[in-house]
Amino acid sequence: MFRLFENLVDPFATSAKGSAAPSPMAYLKYQLYPYRKWLPFMALTGMLAALMESGLIFYSGRLIDLMSAAGPQEFWAQHRSEILIVLACVLFLRPALVTLNHLLLEQTLSSNLQEQVRWRAHKHLLGQSVGFFQNDFAGRLSNRVMQMGPAVQDSVHMSLEGIWFALTYIIGAIAVLSQIDWRLGLPLAVWVGFYVFYVRFIARRVAATAEKWSDARSLLTGRVVDAYANIETVKLFAQDQQEQTFALSALRRLRARFQRFLRLMTMLSFGTIAINGVLIAIVVGPALWLWMQGTVSVGEVAAATALTLRLNGMSGWIMWITIRLFENVGIIREGLQTIATPQEIVDEENAPALAVDKADIRIERLTHRYGKESGGLNNISLHIPAGQRVGLVGHSGAGKSSLVNLLLRFRDAEQGQILIDGQPITSVTQNSLRRQIGMVTQDSSLIHRSVRANILYGNPNATEDQMIAAAKRAEAHDFIMTLSDQDGRTGYEAHVGERGVTLSGGQRQRIAIARVMLKNAPILILDEATSALDSQVEAEIQKTLYEVMEGKTVIAIAHRLSTIAHMDRIIVLKEGDIAEDGTHAQLLSQGGIYSDLWARQSGGFLGVEAAE
Questions:
Q1: Which pLDDT score is estimated for 375?
Q2: Which of 75, 286, 504, 611 has a C-alpha 20 to 30 A away from that of 269?
Q3: Which residues of 557-586 are buried (b: 16+ CB within 10 A; e: fewer)?
Q4: CB atoms within 10 A of CB 71
Q5: Sheet containing 437-440: which strands, arranged edge to edge?
């Protein structure tokens, strides 16, 4: 039975309605859309359960009056049928309603909603551009994703189980008291109005405080995770004290904002006790007076008193739920700063996959200055025929990385376009574009999984033999077979740690090269691909890379000019413009920038003097 209700909604299904909305209420509506068929049943069963609760209290007063009127001898004979019907409702109907309500609330809603929110938030962030992640703490982003789930689930669950139940109970209580005497129902209605005003006053302040508290919590998480992720740098520069100070400032801010939140909780407790005292006085007092006037019976006084005391105890619970709701609204509002941020790089509607036949690259009047007046690329036009191997040279800031990032569509160009086999890269899907490009960077990070998983990242459908062959070609197989991790896993099953920190730079690079070899994309980008390797291994890898380049369109960025001297063509960038274009021999004969760089190299490496 549990599984039946749990599977009424698939929390990981593709969303058919919109995307993350910027306001908390719109966002809740977006998340609740898959549950639209079941929400009315949740509300109906909750309402019936609440009405039955107030009805039982009312009936307890009637029972007292029936007992007083009939006496012990005649009571059962006169009211047996009525008592049996009420007993059947208590034993069967009430448990069935409450159980059904909880199955819908807990199994259908709560067991799915929290993970649905996290999944959608994570999926949305994965679609953000690289620049989005470069401008924020990874820890803060992950904290917002993780706490959004409980905040949304808790809000919806408490609204249906708490607020809706209480509202129905209060309406039922006012109806019962008004049926006894309007002079009992009216004071309760006035008290409810004042109570709502007070709760709203406190809750709005809680929402603002909770948002700041949540933001401080996310900031602290971001700073702590940043220190752990860069622990080698912290230790290398002996900056433990600086990191402690950096985290402590965020911790002090978190403490101050939490204290403000707790002050509101103390004010809330005092207000609740005072308001509850007023409730007893304005309902029970008039009930006793009306009894002394002979207007109401003892059973009706008992029912009024029971309803009031039940509501007295419930008011604190309602207040707490309302505060939690507004606290969650603050958390949701803070989280939406990340979750609702529109994706900068998006596919066109119904964009086709990139179809690569030759891997011909054409760049037309490409300009990208990152929104500034200068820097980046300046009106570049370039044609790289299919199968050509191109070396890209230039000082830092010349535009090499900008060109590669635009080709990979990590950013969209401000002006101009890039075409692959005649197809503008902005008109095809991003995933299909990047599947056709293999890239090895200077500092290739690995994921904290097994060596096998890292290599197969290039081609998840590759066979074991293909994976091992790629590792051997990258000169990685031998050292992989010697690996072991703290859990006793060895060889290709050994885990490499976060970002591959358990491996040396050269070992990470060779695994990254094996991964790209296994991908076997028609376009290959090498960004200082062998700079982390020692000379002997580099020579062996270079030979393998030249074999891999066969039949591919290659762009290789290098400061070590000897690694690109044998390229078909070398392009020199200077301040975002193409300064020189030709073969190694042609550029040397011109006596320009490339010739000067080559002359200044020490051991084939573009050193500090050359850069200056």
A1: 74
A2: 286
A3: bbbbbebbbebebbbbbbebebebebebee
A4: 9
A5: 437-440, 523-527, 553-557, 389-393, 569-574, 577-582
Tokens (6 digits) for 104: 């819908």
Section 304-312 average pLDDT: 80
Q: Would you call 17 exposed, middle or buried from its count of C-beta atoms within 10 A (0-12, 13-18, 19+)?
A: exposed
C-alpha 468/C-alpha 384 separation (Å) is: 32
Asked whether residue 19 carries a pLDDT value surpassing 60, the answer given is: no
Residue 154, token pair as written in the block: 């808790």
pLDDT digits (tens, 9 = 90+) for 39-67: 999 989 988 888 887 788 777 877 888 88
- Residue type for position 442: Q
| Alpha carbon separation from 263 to 258, 276, 432 (Å, rounded) | 9, 20, 54
Question: Residue 487 in contact with residue 539, Cβ under 8 Å?
Answer: no
Nearest to 355 by CA among 435, 461, 411, 458: 435
What integer pLDDT is reported at residue 608 of this predicted model? 38
**Exposed, middle or buried: residue 442 (CB in 10 Å: 0-12, 13-18, 19+)?**
middle
| Rounded (5°) CA angle 425-427-429 | 80
Q: Give the model confidence (pLDDT) of 532-567 as tens digits.
A: 566 776 776 777 778 788 889 999 988 778 778 889
Q: Report the DSSP beta bridge partners of residue 477.
A: none
Which residues, at least 6 apart from 292, have a Cβ–Cβ distance to it below 8 Å? none
Q: Three-state SS for 222? A: helix
Q: How far apart are CA 331 and CA 216, in angstroms?
A: 11
Q: Are strands 423-424 and 415-420 parallel, antiparallel or unpaired?
A: antiparallel
394 backbone φψ class: left, alpha, beta (φ>0; ψ -120 to 50): left
Residue 282 contacts residue 187 (beta carbons within 8 Å) = yes
Predicted confidence (pLDDT) at residue 145 exceeds the cutoff of 60: yes
User: Exposure string (b/e) for 217-246, b if CB count within 10 Å is 16 or more?
Assistant: bbbbbbbbbbbebeeeebeeeeeeeebeee
Contact between residue 276 and residue 173 where contact means Cβ atoms under 8 Å apart = no
Task: Report whether 39 contacts 48 (CB < 8 A).
Answer: no
Q: What is the mean pLDDT of residues 427-452?
A: 87
CA–CA distance, 141 with 125 (Å, rounded to integer): 9
Nearest to 340 by CA among 148, 137, 153, 121: 121
**Mean pLDDT over the full length of the chain:** 84
**Which pair of tokens denotes residue 146?**
């993780």
Single-letter amino acid code for the residue at 99: T
DSSP string spanning 159-219? IIIIIHHHHHHHHHHHHHHHHH-HHHHHHHHHHHHHHHHHHHHHHHHHHHHHHHHHHHHHH
